[in-house]
Amino acid sequence: RSHTAPARRPRIPRNTWAHSQLPACLQLHISGRACLPRPLAAMKRLFGAAKAAPAPAGPAPSLSDTSGRIDARVTELDTKIAKCDEDIRRYMSQGKGAQQKQLALQCMKRKKMYEQQRDQIMGTQFNVDCLAGAQEQADLTAMTVEAMQAGHQDLKQRYAKMGGAADIEKLMDSMADLQDEISDINEALSTSYAVPDGFDEAAFEQEFSALEEEMALEKLTGVGASVRPDYLPAAPAPAATTATAPPEAAAPTAEAARP
User: Fold this and answer.
1) Exposed site from 66, 107, 223, 235, fewest CB < 10 Å?
2) Alpha carbon distance 215, 192 (integer Å)
3) CA pair distance 91, 88, nearest whole angstrom
C-alpha cells in the first residue's frame, strides 16, 4: 500500500501586489504563521494578560531598628512641641491683637497634633518593645533547650560507658570478694608458726587477765611491785659487785692530785 503526500499549497511571496491586497489574517495564514482566534484576542483585551511575578522584597527590618527609629521620631516630636510652646509664649507676649491670638491658636493646634502623634508612636513603641522582649525570651528558651539536650546526650553517653546498674552491682560484689580475700591473706601472713606445740592461746588469755587483776590490786593496797606472784619462779640473786678499784687504776689518780 503506497502513501502519496498531499500536494502543498504554493506560497505567494510577500512582496507581490496580490499578497499586499489580502487581509492581515489571510496573509499570516498564507505565509505559514497562524493568527490568534478572535475570541481569544477579545478575552485578552477584556481580562488583560497575566501579571509578571513581583520582584523579591528586601529583608524585613528588625525590632531593634524599628524601636530606634521610633525613639528618633519621639525625640523629634518632643523638639517640635517645645518649639510650639516657645512660639505660643512669644505670640502672647506681643499683645492681645487678633493676629497674635490667631497665631497662638494655630501653634496650640499644632502642639496638640504633635502630642497625639507622640502618644500614638509611644504606644506603638511599647508593643514593639514587648515583642522584642518576647523574642529575646524565645531565643533564651531555645538556647536553654539546646544546651539541655546536649547535656542530656553527653550524660547519657557517659553513663552508657559505665554500664548499667547490673554492671555496677557486679563491680561492687567483685570489690567485696577482693576485700575478703585480702583479709584472709593478711590473717594468714600474721599467723605465727614459731610457737612450740602445747601452747594454748586461751591459757595465755587467762594468765594475762589474772596479771591485770593482780596489778590493779597492788595499786589499791599499796603493795610494791617487787613482790612476785606465787605462780612465777623466784628471781635470781643479784651478783656481788666490788666497790674498790684496782691499785693500778688508783695510782695515776693519786699522782695527778699532787701539786
Assistant:
1) 235
2) 28
3) 5
- What's the average pLDDT block by block, 10 residues per block, for the chain (259 residues)? 54 52 53 53 63 66 86 92 90 83 89 92 91 91 94 90 84 92 88 64 80 85 60 57 46 45
pTM of the full structure:
0.40
Report the C-alpha gap between 232 and 214 in whole angstroms: 13
Tell me how far CA of residue 228 lies from CA of 75, 219, 223, 233, 238, in angstroms: 113, 14, 11, 8, 16
> What pLDDT does residue 8 have?
58
Please report how many Cα atoms fall inside a 13 Å half-sphere around the Cα of residue 141, on the Cβ side: 6
CA–CA–CA angle 234, 239, 242 (5° rounding): 160
- The DSSP-derived string for 56-92 is PP-PPPPHHHHHHHHHHHHHHHHHHHHHHHHHHHHHH
Residue with cell 497662638: 104
